[in-house]
Amino acid sequence: MLVAALLAAGGLYVALSPADATNKADDASMIAKGRSLFQVGCSSCHGQNAEGIVTKRGKQYGPSLVGVGAAAVDFQVGTGRMPMAQPGVQAARKKPVYNQDEIDALGAYVQSLGPGPAVPDITQSDIDNADVVKGGQFFRTNCTACHNFAGSGGALPGGKHAPSLRGVSAKHLYEAMLTGPQQMPVFSDGVLSPQDKKDIIAYLKKNEATPSYGGFTLGSIGPVSEGLFAWIVGIGSLVGIGIWLTSSSTRSTKKKGDAA
Ligand code: HEC
Ligand code: HEC
């Protein structure tokens, strides 16, 4: 029995440990690669060791990235917000500069500086199995104040804005909630559990795929576009009808005839 147990333990160790060791080596080379990418593309704003740079007037040039986690890097770099082109009010979404391998390396490097949220693992079946109705309730309670009732985005004070949520991938939706970029609050797992987050994502994806049965959406941005439409098209056509009526009524044609 003892010999068998020892053999089993030894065998298991042999079977499992090499995989671990190579993983470690992979991690180390990923971190090294991420570090060198970071030094070239990010250190000018975030500091040589991602400690952040404060300007003379006490403003953040680039914040410290210690403890923001791989999820924040995957979101910021994956949506093209980072590297920021120039310091400004808000880092805008643009075409990503790095490919996914490089983003993973940058993420591994930042994750090695201090523990933070890891890149979430979300699959299509997670979305298919999520509760869309609950997701809609969570969305209306937590997100519509900034992102509008249909996720079309909206203006915020100080020249900032909450972007539209259409066409954002499930992974980036999840990471935005997990890391709270810029003005957006962090929705940690204590506030919205991983399942709640998946419900919200499923709701937004369902919303995106649903045709607008009620007619034109006018961009789903609420009273601004609807009011403009009512003024220009609604009142405009009433004025047009008014002009047409007065110019082609019997009285106006009679007057024209009299004058001639
Ligand atoms: C031109 C300066 C600049 C460059 C270059 C830059 N960043 Fe940033 N970064 C910023 C600023 C400013 C913020 C803060 C944005 C805010 O919150 O308003 C920021 C925020 C971030 C955040 C979010 C931190 C958080 O608290 O969630 C991450 C992650 C990040 N940067 C990663 C990177 C990476 C990786 C690179 C290189 C590929 C990079 N940045 C290059 C200026 C820069
Ligand atoms: C206080 C206002 C506010 C609330 C509440 C808020 N957000 Fe945001 N959100 C923002 C701002 C501002 C940005 C833009 C940040 C940036 O540009 O880095 C943003 C960005 C995002 C993005 C990134 C979009 C893109 O184009 O890459 C997603 C996804 C997102 N929010 C989802 C959500 C969800 C889901 C909720 C609710 C659980 C939510 N937000 C609640 C303000 C908010």
TrEMBL record:
Enzyme class: translocase
Post-translational modification: Binds 2 heme c groups covalently per subunit.
Mode of membrane association: Multi-pass membrane protein
Cellular component annotations (GO), alphabetically ordered: plasma membrane
EC number: 7.1.1.8
Keywords noted in UniProt: Cell membrane, Electron transport, Heme, Iron, Membrane, Metal-binding, Repeat, Respiratory chain, Signal, Translocase, Transmembrane, Transmembrane helix, Transport
Binding residues for heme c 2: C143, C146, H147
Domain of life: Bacteria
Regions crossing the membrane: 228-246
Binding-site positions, heme c 1: C42, C45, H46
Subcellular location: Cell membrane
Main location as per UniProt: membrane
GO molecular function: heme binding; iron ion binding; quinol-cytochrome-c reductase activity
Signal peptide: 1-21
Catalyzed reaction equations: a quinol + 2 Fe(III)-[cytochrome c](out) = a quinone + 2 Fe(II)-[cytochrome c](out) + 2 H(+)(out)
Cytochrome c domain: residues covered: 29-114, 130-208
Keyword Nucleotidyltransferase: no
Subunit note: The cytochrome bc1 complex is composed of a cytochrome b (QcrB), the Rieske iron-sulfur protein (QcrA) and a diheme cytochrome c (QcrC) subunit.
Protein name: Cytochrome bc1 complex cytochrome c subunit
Biological source species: Nocardioides pocheonensis
